């Protein structure tokens, strides 16, 4: 059988593309099944990681009654005789006698026996040193356990770690937390026609994905070093196999750009076959970005790694990132499946027949509406640069003004919540 005949037969026998929503669910499940190991890390090192265990507080929060104002901790009715002073960080003696008071600073521990805290600006001192004033009816201190009780779960496993979470953990008494190891990612750029510097010329185009994709991966929580970006890789099967094998040595995820079809220099599929990979998803019924894929490789020791094949057209590659890579990485990090917000269309967005249409839109947040943008060809990035996300137009439909549709946001950062 000739090569052309064999290729035609392979195309006929190929399974139909996965539906877009099905593909997202499938890759998320694959990532969750291969979730990365949990490690203990100091609080200073966990920004961008993911909680592997629920965050609980080690004590009541606050652990003891603390004054919320500068003033006087008093016992009984006034006037009060001053018997001491307590600052933040000190442990005061109890107030045992009515008519006594201690000067107290904001954040200081309220002494046992105090009946109220009188604000300093609402107090006076008599010539003989007594304190007078009328305490407010509501207590001027934070009660133990007011924010949380000892052992209470504050945030579930799977929560992305951000600066607010780190501060909360410290206030609960933690010095370190158990988190998921961050995914290590690499990028292989395929295409002899690509330039890595200067303007396009003489039939060669500038590589836009080599500089951009690592930044997207970092926003999804990956570690990508400069040395993890390789290319352009020569358009030969041996070069593709060698580059993939080398990248997979350390990476949990290898993204590739281009070569996802079956053209004369598209070597990704045969390279994956040579490496013994199996497909989680092989093409998706979405426009743009149809020829995307996700493959899985498993070592004898159980280690699982993934290859995400991104189309060579730049916007199509970003569609593949938000469609396959983002859900996969959520699963690998033990995070919930990203829940898509909704937006109201301000203008008509055409459908793409049996395919899901991911249409770039700009959000008018004041009006709460989504507007299609211009320059949205699969090879264009101008529209992407001014857009806030992709409106999801489901198969067999079109988006009409006033319709509420799912939105794939383009602003997801490591610490943003998934739901």
UniProtKB/TrEMBL annotation:
Stretches assigned to the MoaB/Mog domain: 186-331
One Gene Ontology biological process: Mo-molybdopterin cofactor biosynthetic process
Cofactor entry: Mg(2+)
Pathway annotation from the record: Cofactor biosynthesis; molybdopterin biosynthesis
MF annotations from Gene Ontology: metal ion binding; molybdopterin molybdotransferase activity
PANTHER family, alphabetized: GEPHYRIN, MOLYBDOPTERIN BIOSYNTHESIS PROTEIN
Annotated function: Catalyzes the insertion of molybdate into adenylated molybdopterin with the concomitant release of AMP.
Record-given protein name: Molybdopterin molybdenumtransferase
């Amino acid at each position: 059988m000739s090569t052309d005949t064999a290729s035609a037969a392979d195309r006929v026998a190929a399974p139909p593309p996965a539906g877009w929503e099905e593909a997202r669910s499938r890759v998320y499940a694959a990532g969750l099944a291969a979730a990365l190991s949990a490690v203990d890390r100091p609080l200073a090192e966990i920004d961008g990681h993911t909680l592997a265990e629920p965050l609980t507080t080690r004590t009541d929060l606050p652990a003891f009654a603390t004054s919320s104002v500068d003033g006087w901790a008093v016992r009984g009715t006034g006037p009060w005789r001053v018997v001491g002073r307590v600052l933040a960080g000190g442990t005061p003696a109890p107030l045992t006698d009515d008519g006594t008071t201690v000067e107290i600073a904001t954040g200081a521990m309220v002494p046992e026996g105090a009946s109220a805290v009188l604000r300093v600006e609402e107090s006076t001192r008599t010539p003989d040193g007594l304190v007078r004033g009328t305490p407010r009816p509501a207590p001027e201190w934070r009660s133990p356990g007011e924010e949380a009780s000892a052992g209470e779960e504050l945030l579930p496993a799977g929560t992305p770690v951000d600066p607010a979470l780190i501060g909360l953990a410290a206030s609960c008494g933690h010095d370190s937390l158990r988190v998921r190891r961050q995914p290590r990612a690499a990028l292989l750029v395929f295409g002899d026609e690509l330039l890595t510097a200067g303007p396009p010329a003489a039939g060669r185009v500038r590589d836009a994905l080599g500089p951009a994709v690592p930044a997207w991966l970092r926003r999804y929580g990956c570690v990508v070093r400069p040395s993890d970006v390789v290319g352009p890789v020569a358009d030969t099967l041996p070069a593709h196999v060698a580059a993939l094998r080398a990248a997979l040595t350390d990476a949990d995820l290898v993204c590739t750009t281009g070569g996802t079809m079956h053209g004369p220099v598209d070597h990704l599929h045969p390279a994956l076959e040579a490496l013994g990979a199996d497909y989680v998803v092989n093409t998706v019924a979405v426009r743009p970005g149809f020829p995307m894929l996700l493959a899985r490789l498993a070592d004898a020791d159980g280690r699982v790694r993934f290859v995400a094949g991104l189309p060579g057209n730049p916007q199509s590659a970003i569609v593949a990132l938000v469609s396959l890579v983002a859900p996969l990485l959520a699963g690998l990090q033990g995070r919930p499946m990203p829940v898509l917000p909704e937006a109201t269309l301000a203008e008509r967005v055409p459908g793409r027949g049996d395919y899901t249409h991911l249409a770039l839109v700009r959000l008018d947040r004041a009006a709460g509406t989504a507007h299609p943008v211009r320059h949205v060809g699969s090879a264009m990035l101008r529209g992407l640069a001014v857009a806030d996300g992709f409106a999801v137009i489901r198969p067999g439909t079109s988006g009409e003004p006033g319709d509420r549709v799912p939105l794939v946001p383009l602003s997801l950062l490591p610490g943003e919540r998934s739901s």
